[in-house]
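Changelog excerpt

This revision adds worked examples to the README so contributors can see how folded entries look when concatenated. The first example is reproduced verbatim below.
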Amino acid sequence: MKKMIFIVIMMIFIIGCSKKVDLIGTWNSNGKSYTFNGDGTCTKVVNSTSYSCTYDEKDGVVNIYLTNDPTNVYESGQINPDLIIIGSDVYQKSE
């Protein structure tokens, strides 16, 4: 019983201390940008051309879809506390 209580306390501690990255906002990388909205929509801009998209985020990975088909991932990226890596592009959040 004590072991189970210890495990539960450790899980709560780990979950409570993990830093959740605020994905909402605009992220920039070398003439490209993504703007993520709180409703699951996003906009990608490349060389002044804008693309509508949707996204989901789970376990530090963002999946981006150019259509509303969640089985058709357009791009996928790794989320870090202050940057997103998508392919060879490193995006930093705008202030």
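The second example, added in the same revision:
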Amino acid sequence: MDKSRIMVKDEPWGKIMLLESKKSVMKPRILLALLFVVMAVLLSGCQKNMNYKDTAAFTFDGAKVNLSEMMYHVLLAKMQEELYTSYMKEDNQATDQKEVKELSKALTDAAIDNAVKYQLFYGMALNENYSLTEEEKAECLRRAENIQKNFGEETLNNYGLTIEDLTAIQEKIALATRYYSNYIDSFSIDKEAIRNNLDIADYKQYKINYLFGQKTEKELLAELRDKALTEDFKELSEEAGIKSGDLTFFAGKDTFGEEKILEDTVISMKEGEVSEVIETVNGFYILKLISESSKDAFEKAVEEEYEKERNEAAEAGYQSLKADHEIELNKDLQKVINR
């Protein structure tokens, strides 16, 4: 089943929300654009007399990081929260208020940690004489202009975020991201050891086409079997008025339940082969093995585990680095950003 996906993230380590739906990819894109407008309206009503630019969100080794910069990260977190709740409504799914509240806190906490993390790795990048090219600076300006366009100049100005501020934040993010990328590459994670610890038998993956007929349609399926050797299953189903579909599954996961004969048949087939008519408790099937991609599934699992271990090592390293610095959050930070 094809599913469209939305990913909203703050590179390189920000929280990622993955939402899935049967809907087309266009609707989420439209929804995302509308959310920028909604967020701009909602946020423009926030208190305007607070001096975000001169108020410290936190100090890092005595250096002040102002609240307006923190609000950049918070606005992204709020956008993700609004995206999640609106998308759930769009997909006619009930939203649990407790769950939404927990999500809001988690995203806000992540936004605060992102700001601290960027500050730490930005400082380390400067100490090692990292710099941006003119082309990279131009890209940062382009991103800043897009952010201002999406959220609205007036809304951002309420938080002390001018185009110059947004550009400077994007440049900090770009430099910190580059340093972090090199930092995470410095961890020696043994991919071969990961590969050796995983069992390829756990990743036997098969993609099939199938035709399905009710118990009264056995003869019809039998008539279609020879055509199924060379003709498209979907076209055959439309012509005969029976069900068809495709499915990708891992072996040994009880995908077919009481119809285990279907899995056993697929596993015994070669790519491109078409089965005989198979009788099950629910009806009759004809199967075609499109591909056996166990190796691809296994290598994907290796890559995912490799990235997981790299990220865990980098996070542990970050926590260790953070402990070497004096970081003091504004005691009223949560209260201020949740206004």
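Reviewer comment on example two: The beta strands are 4-8, 17-21, 56-60, 63-66, 205-213, 243-250, 278-279, 284-292, 327-329. Confidence is low (pLDDT under 50) at residues 1-9, 14-27, 37-47.
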